UniProtKB/TrEMBL annotation:
This protein's name: SHSP domain-containing protein
Alphabetical GO biological process terms: response to stress
PROSITE patterns assigned to the protein according to its UniProt record, in alphabetical order: SHSP (PS01031)
Compartments where located: Cytoplasm
Amino acid sequence: MASTPADVKEYPNSYEFVIDMPGLKSGDIKVQVEDDNVLTISGERKRDEVKEGEKYLRMERRVGKFMRKFVLPENANTDAVSAACKDGVLTVTVQKLPPPEPKKPKTIEVKIA
């Protein structure tokens, strides 16, 4: 299983994972969120069928299955994940959760005994 290089970017409202996937169709790529915080990108690049009378002199392009797993930060919204593949580049965007509101101080009434 081949490891595919990836770029990971952070924006104010999202995280973006960018992976080169030349020659793959969207049906060959699977994007999943596992265990509520693990982004998994996997797929398979198949070898072209060899035609009669054809033989390879050199075969350098990688074929086979690939998988990448990324542990998402706590503020990643795993319900807001989108993926798009354009010109052989897969971009997976994970939105961030809004920051938690700061806790207001709790006032305790002092009773006089």
